[in-house]
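As the next step, I selected for study one protein, both as residues and as discrete backbone shape codes, as given directly below:
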Amino acid sequence: MDMVTAMRIAIEVARHGSFTAASRELRLSAPSVSRIMAELEADLGVRLFNRTTRQLNLTDAGMEFVQKSSGILEELDTMRSVVRERHDTPRGQLRVSCVMAFGNECLAPALPEFLRRFPQLDISLDLGNRLVDLIEEHYDVAIRVGPLSDSSMIAQKIFTQKIIFVGSPEFCRRFGMPKSVDKIRSYPSVTQVSGEWGRTHQFRYLGEIVDFEVPQHFRMNSACAVKNACLTGYGYSLLPDFMVADDLAENRLVQLLPNYEPMEQSIYAFYAQRRHTPQKIRVFIDYLAEVFGS
């Protein structure tokens, strides 16, 4: 007797409450279904079904057997899908939501190589700083700064950023080099605030944690726009280190308050918990770890 086949038949008999209906669903003869169930009961040494001329009901042992069989068969189906998918080419559309600064500066330039590796995948990249609902809005992956408390999500850390004080050479000529956060608060600023993110940043100075509440008299929700305004010399800004690295190297911007060590902020890729994660998500998360993990 094939136990897997017997479990599938028992589940269908229990679901339909009838050997005949189960046989039609499984495309087997009714005598075959009856025979296999009789062999199963003989093998287990218990009665699984109470039969009368009018109805068929599960016994307590039958209920336990069907419940455990359902779990085992689901695991087998998942294992089969996982193994098969590893030999298939990822295909279809991958929908990704990403915070703007990291998306503009880091993710977008990295995606062409990903698409060259997986040409049967299409990517839809939505750049924005609002929190999206992956399930309701049908996103596969969301890339955000900081961990989320949603236990239905899996978080994969892919990058770290530091928010640093920067100003243009023109700004430095006009105002000089500030020596402390207390002093810099009196200078003009252009800053990024998006929702609750960006209102306060933390720094380590002389062994203590310093909270810097970001001025908001000239604020925007785009780090790219903030940097462009900062380059005019109007005021200082707080921007991710990866975003201003080239500007610092080419002296278009100057780091201010270098003795204030910025706290690292982790960037995570989030995706929904599933019994079986689609292959297109797995290969994308692996690619992010490969490209940004170092």
Summary: The chain has a mean pLDDT of 89. The radius of gyration is 30 Å. Residues 60-85 form the longest helix (26 residues).
